[in-house]
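Batch job 17 of 40 flagged for manual review because the log was empty.
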Amino acid sequence: MKRRSILWVLFIGIAALAVLAIACNGNGDGDDEASPTAPADDEPTAGSHSQILDDVQGRGELICGVNDGVPGFGFVEPDGTNSGFDTDFCRAIAAAVLGDSELVQFVPLTAEARLTALQTGEIDVLIRNTTWTITRDAATGLSYAVTTFYDGQGMMVRAADGFDTIDELADARICVLQGTTTELNLADRLPNSEPVGFEENETLQAAFIEESCSGWTSDKSQLASRRSAFPEDAGGPDSLVILEETFSKEPLGPLTIDNDSQWFDIVNWVTIGMIIADEKGITSDNLQGFIDDPDGAETARLLGVPFEGGEIFEPGLGIDPDFMQDVISQVGNYGEVYEDNITPIGIPREGTLNASFTDGGLIYAPPWR
């Protein structure tokens, strides 16, 4: 009897607490306000605040990991400036979060050091021809943003050696960069070859010039880049041939650390915004006309301006909604960045996987809404 009385008292107490909680909350079952497990659209979710964004804006500079030896993608010019397709995406992020595309510290990284630099916080973002793979995505604590360049591995040889196919190099010595997917792909494609590894392209190229290797394997974009700038005293570009076969898939794009979802979203959507601008024909030259008179609701949302008397769209990234105006005016859209950097090294966009989806390519943006 005593036990039953205690249980009854506990039951009454729990019921009273429940009634009190409902009264204090003031929300009945029919209330439309979002609960803690389903936040309202205009409220940040737990963990959405970006420490990296705070750090970048606090120091007034983006720290971006890049390549410095691949013309067209990441290269240091004779005057000391950084140029290239990848480095322009660094500048685009700086324009978005700082309002100035020049506020970037470029950190050159070897293939072996690049992922560690991002994991340890040495850099804010890595944009350095890095292939998206399952292990890099799932086992490193890093996240890949949208692919900016669809590449594939190939083989470059000396024209004088007369190689026509990759199979003719089955037992040959092949120059390859260490710490890359290129090493693994070479082992799959030519298991009996002899890989000769190097940490940097400059030492690899020197060995190739000395004929320490019969072939040079890398992403075809890198081979085209190195070929375009091959020293004249070593034979120049015409002394080299990139064989036709492509024997891997190499999707390349920006990487961020896993534990900062807001920062990842910013990097991702800056890139997507440049693709959308390309799809819509919004360039650095005609941008002001689209700001003054947007040709549709999505263009207005992209540029952070009202459409037909409506409100300015707030995408929820934690930066000014008109950030793409700075990106496009200071850096350009995807197509402009491609034409400025990659077309000159002999890789036209037309007819490749990097054409817009409207032209048969894979460059495709989700909606800005």
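Reviewer: the log was empty due to a logging misconfiguration, but the result itself is present. The chain has 13 helices and 15 strands. Unflagging and moving on to job 18.
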